[in-house]
Every structure is written in C-alpha cells, then in structure tokens.
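Sharing a chain and its predicted structure for anyone who wants a worked example. Both blocks are below, sequence first, tokens second.
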Amino acid sequence: MPASPPSRNAIRCNTSGTTNASTCAHSTRAKPIRICADSGMTAIIRHQRQRITAMSKPITPQQDSAANAIPWEHLPDAAATAATLVGALAAFWLPLPLHSLWLALWDRGVAVALTVVLLVLCALLGGWCNRRRTRRVRYALLGDGLRIRRGLCFWQEIVLPRSRVQHLDLERGPIERNLGLATLVIHTAGTRMHAVRLAGLKEQRAQALRDALLPNETGARDDAV
C-alpha cells in the first residue's frame, strides 16, 4: 500500500537543519490553537452583546408601578383652602415697606394706588403658590414608618422610621380649627430639637397617624436615643 505524501509542515521540518522536533510540533498546532481562541473570544463577545441588549431594554409601566407601589394619600380640599388663606395673608404685607418710598417719589394718590395694586397681586400670588405646594403633598403610612413627599419645583421625600420617633404633637391654629384640620408634629431622634410637620390633615386622620406612629415596643425608643 503506498504511503501518504508528507505534509507541508513535515517537509519544512525535514529540509531545515536548525528546526527541531518541538518547533515542528508547535508549527503543526499553532493554527488549531488560534482557532479555539478565536471561537472562545467570539462566544464571549456574543454573550456580552446579549447582556447589554437585555440591560438596555426599557422598563415597562407595569414594572415601574410595581416597584413604586406605595399607597400615597393626598391632603383634603380644606387643606388647600387653609394654605391659600395663609399664603395670601403672609404675602399681603410685603409691599408695605415700599409705600413710604413711593410717597417721596410720586404723588400721594399714585403711591396709594400702586401700593394697593401690589398688595392684591402679592396676596394672590402668595395664596396661589401655597395652594399649589399643598396640592403636591403626599404621605404614606407604611409598616416601618411614615413617608412624606412634598415640593413645588424641587421634590423632597422624607422617610420617618417608627423606631426613630420620640414623641408626637397635634397643633391647631385658628384657620385649622374653623376648617376641622390639624398639624401633626413628629419629633425624631438623632438631631437636637428636630421635628417634621405635616399640616392640613383632618383631625381624625391626624389622631390616627399619631397613634399608628407610636413605637410598638417600649425598648424601641430607648434604642433610638
């Protein structure tokens, strides 16, 4: 049976006097090793592409709502009314210091008219801003404490763990008493004289929140101090 012709690598090794057996073995195995490395690198690149594609998928509304499933509660309509009155009264007096300056620059009638117009504008603007701010307030009573979200231009979310609560107060001003509202004041541990206020609550709801935020165990308050 005729022998098979020698391969090209074998001929090169036999004709070269300086090439040894290890060099021949290396030359015959270089191409398969490179192919295996290339195939492994291709598999790694393919895996990374699949991972990036999976991470770049947009979050569906169902997933977003499930992640942020917090039972937020709104303040009652009476809270917006009280906030409008408080904001209007607070901003009503802002132009009064300028009245004496206007009297020195213009006639008395012009100064009085300008002051009245600015008083009305400031009252309307202050009431509107405070009403909008109150409409944006949200709160949620959870198992571990209370969360408050508020802010008109910049949102602020406050987390109050039940274990950090030291004592709670209820305040009622003249406007709140007439509208059946109350302000819940939560004093927390960790900082000196630190308190969080949640105004515009119904009296029954404020009392319920006060009772729910009390520590369940007597030792929880001692641990928070």
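Comments welcome. The first helix runs from residue 8 to 15.
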